[in-house]
Design a protein that fits this description.
Its EC number is 2.7.7.18. This is Probable nicotinate-nucleotide adenylyltransferase. This protein is of the alpha/beta class. The chain has a single domain (about 5-185), classed as HUPs (Rossmann fold). It contains 9 helices and 7 strands, in the order E-H-E-H-E-H-H-E-H-E-H-E-H-E-H-H.
Length: about 220
């Protein structure tokens, strides 16, 4: 049976920028993802969230509006309204798995920088029980095995594939990497650019820059 692949892209989205959108589009095109869920962090253990949740959600709406198969999933934010514990990716994937329909498989999208730090994530090696992991490599800095810890190298050796069809015949557990041309910028760099009153052209999706200026965010 050929599985229906669903992309999952988590992050603070503080703010969402063109790099996020391009990463999702690239994998959607390559792996024919039926949809991509953008999951804004609740209390992120690795990140300092600057802006209120309502602004992050509104910026996501503006950014995703032109993309019919991109959706906001705010389960982490809702969870943290009553629970002030950090939001861990493993818990989010477990929650998604409870809602998964027959014939679906989740693909967690990330950049190579995040993948190289995967061992610092809570229960990181259990992530493979719930999803495939699709990694974007920067052309100028691909992942080399010598960069991996021994534990991560073991997972890499056992799980790596470059065949999209492998993703469709397994419900979870594989790693796939591809090199895409995309805007290599972080949300923190965007915030610095706004604070310095520098040009944001081509860095933020349509409407997001206007929203930031309207509400005087990150100034």
């Amino acid at each position: 049976m050929s599985l229906n692949l669903i992309g999952v892209l988590g992050g603070a989205f503080d703010p969402i920028h063109c790099g996020h959108i391009e990463l999702a589009k690239a994998w959607q095109d390559l792996a024919s993802l039926s949809k991509v869920l953008f999951i804004p962090s609740g209390l992120a253990p690795h990140k300092n969230i600057v802006i209120d949740n309502k602004h992050r959600i509104e910026m996501l709406k503006l950014a995703l509006n032109p993309h019919t198969n991109f959706f906001i999933d705010d389960r982490e934010i809702k969870k943290n309204q009553n629970d002030l514990k950090p939001s861990y990716t493993i818990e989010t994937l477990q929650s998604l798995a409870l809602e998964k329909k027959e014939g679906q498989a989740f693909c967690f999208l990330m950049g190579s920088d995040a993948f190289l730090k995967l061992e610092s994530w809570h229960l990181w090696n259990e992530l493979f029980n719930y999803c495939h992991i699709l990694v974007v490599e920067r052309r100028e800095s691909p992942i080399f095995e010598e960069q991996l810890t021994s534990a991560l190298k073991k997972e890499w050796a056992e799980r790596l594939t470059q065949n999209v069809e492998d993703l469709r015949t397994s419900s979870h557990g594989l790693i796939m990497t591809k090199t895409f041309e995309y805007i290599d910028i972080s949300s923190s760099e965007i915030r610095d650019t706004i604070y310095s009153n520098k040009n944001l052209i081509n860095l933020l999706p349509a409407g997001v820059a206007d929203y930031i200026n309207l509400h005087k965010l990150y100034h």
